[in-house]
Design a protein that fits this description.
2 domains; 7-stranded mixed sheet; about 400 residues; binds pyridoxal-5'-phosphate; alpha/beta; Aspartate Aminotransferase, domain 2; 3-stranded antiparallel sheet; Aspartate Aminotransferase, domain 1
């Protein structure tokens, strides 16, 4: 059993706070239990209903539900026609899957630097990395804040690139009043338990393009079709289906769809509470000169998935590890989002070297994620703020 951190004889917290946590209620449990008693465990009516609902929420014309967010990215890259010899530009401050999807297709991920204040991919850096081999851009809505989509879309249109928006963090976010999911050529979602709504594991791709949609549908289920219009050898044999492309089994189950549908009933509540918590943190930390509060672009109306605590290294007598450990000592189990993707040893083996994206690398050494989830209470938030304030007082230069 973990011992409580004791500071000056005062126990700090009885239960440690993690950076994220799912919220499951009786309604969710009922929805799953009913599905288990129904006729379909996969490929049934709940998937169809879920896809329609995600279209409604995002304003997209088409949606394909898939097994997870990584599968969604892989399918989107395939549908974009990404293949061997191509390059795909993305940010290093993301989960590795945003870049791995290019590798799955035999293409090379190219890393553009981040904006040092918003932490999202910098459109100017995207532009600087375009070559004749560039095929697509994967723009991540990091922490839930929409990337600078107008600028990025302009660059993509000008250079004939497909824009894939990785919205794993940003369901519930709007950009210029329009929901994420209808703003890029394709938008991918993840419903992993740390995300704002969960299916246990799950993902989706939305698009307004009929052509991309048909490709996504085909490849998410083996490349096999029952649609005679898509077949090379259509027949009226009732059993006949035909594999016309190389696809995968990336289908979502009915059980996952039922859970997600029930979670989506709570999306607005989840979003509201996350915004309240972000406002409390921002209010407290904007008064502390050693801390940097993430800048929000006015176009983004953000449902935040992560709250990034960043300190100015030059103004403190500690490094990130010491700050992180001190938080842990206060019962706050932070996490770091993310190691720059090309720092992973696999990418090192592929030839990527440190120094590619200075803003991203500096961000990485000064940042960690604070607890942010629906069931976090105001008292929890006050505890986190107290702990952070105390640590800054302890380590600030000239303090
Ligand atoms: C979680 C996440 C993914 C991958 O989603 P999974 O459902 O876990 O496969 C991709 N991109 C980003 C930015 C993520 O946070």
């Amino acid at each position: 059993m973990e011992k409580l951190a004791i500071e000056g004889g005062v126990p700090v917290r009885e239960h440690p706070l993690n950076y994220g946590r799912q919220y499951i209620d009786e309604h969710d449990i009922q929805a799953v239990a009913e599905t288990l008693k129904s006729d379909y465990l996969t490929c049934g009516p709940r998937i169809t209903a879920l896809e329609q609902r995600l279209c409604q929420i995002t304003g997209a014309k088409y949606c394909v539900a898939v097994s997870n967010g990584t599968a969604a990215l892989h399918l989107a890259a395939l549908a974009a026609g990404v293949g061997p010899g191509d390059e795909v530009i993305t940010t290093p401050i993301t989960f590795a899957a945003s870049a791995n999807c290019a590798l799955y297709c035999g293409a090379r991920p190219v890393f553009a630097d981040i904006n040092p204040e918003t932490y999202n991919i910098d459109p100017a850096s995207i532009k600087a990395h375009i070559t004749p081999r560039t095929k697509a851009v994967v723009a991540v809505d990091f922490t839930g804040q929409a990337a600078e989509l107008d600028a990025i879309r302009d660059i993509c249109e000008k250079h004939g690139l497909t824009l894939i928006e990785d919205a794993a963090h940003s369901i519930g976010t709007k950009y210029k009043g329009r929901p994420v999911g209808s703003l890029a050529d394709m938008t991918t979602f993840s419903f992993h338990p740390v995300k704002t709504v969960t299916a246990g594991e799950g993902g989706a791709v939305t698009t307004d393009s009929r052509k991309l949609y048909e490709k996504l549908v085909l490849t998410h289920s083996h490349g096999i079709t029952r649609d005679p219009r898509q077949m090379a050898h259509p027949t009226d044999d009732p059993w006949y289906n035909e594999q016309t492309d190389l696809g995968y089994n990336y289908r979502m189950t009915e059980i996952q769809a039922a859970l997600l549908d029930s979670q989506l009933d709570k999306l607005e509540r989840f979003s509201r509470r996350r915004r309240e918590i972000v406002a409390l943190y921002d209010e407290a930390f904007s008064h502390i000169p050693q801390l940097q509060v993430q800048r929000e672009i006015p176009e983004s109306d953000t449902t935040r998935h992560l709250y990034i605590l960043r300190f100015h290294r030059e103004q403190m007598n500690c490094d990130r590890r010491q700050f992180f450990d001190a938080l842990h000592g206060e019962g706050i189990h932070s996490q770091v989002h993310y190691l720059p993707v090309y720092w992973h040893s696999y990418y090192e083996k592929l030839g990527y070297r440190k120094g590619l994206c200075p803003n991203a690398e500096k961000y990485y050494t000064e940042s960690m994620s604070l607890p942010l989830y629906y069931s976090l209470t105001d008292e929890d938030v006050r505890d986190v703020i107290r702990a952070v304030t105390k640590i800054v007082e302890r380590y600030r230069k000239g303090g």
